[in-house]
Design a protein that fits this description.
119 residues; mainly beta; seven-stranded mixed beta sheet; globular
Length: 119
């Protein structure tokens, strides 16, 4: 059973920065795609940023230019650098990892970490 352990959430003022990390219990290059999702109270979970095995990245329009997703293959860790944070970024952030192999499929979620942007 793959485990994803998140860290780095917290309370920050508008305009501030936070860095989230997600450490996997297995080689992250075994996943086809990894991503960060968030869910605000009363809203659906949404994709914030993703990174594919080859290194390509994609971002939700609402975070483009402010958030950066990255990966440290040696540490089996994915990160999300969040800059110029806004109150509307407040949500629980979840790490996700998916593998599409028919022999070893995976769709794993972290436990979630709270990010609160408030003055």
């Amino acid at each position: 059973q793959v485990q994803l352990v998140e860290s780095g959430g917290g309370l920050v003022q508008p305009g501030g920065s936070l860095r989230l990390s997600c450490k996997a219990s297995r080689n992250i290059l075994s996943f086809n795609v990894m991503g960060w999702y968030r869910q605000a109270p009363g809203k659906q979970r949404e994709l914030v940023a993703s990174i594919i095995r080859g290194g390509g990245t994609d971002y939700a329009d609402s975070v483009k230019g402010r958030f950066t997703i990255s990966r440290d293959n040696g540490e089996n860790t994915m990160s999300l650098q969040m800059d110029t944070l806004k109150p509307e970024d407040t949500a629980v952030y979840y790490c996700n990892a998916r593998a599409y192999s028919p022999y070893d499929p995976a769709d794993c979620w972290g436990q979630g970490t709270q990010v609160t942007v408030s003055s």
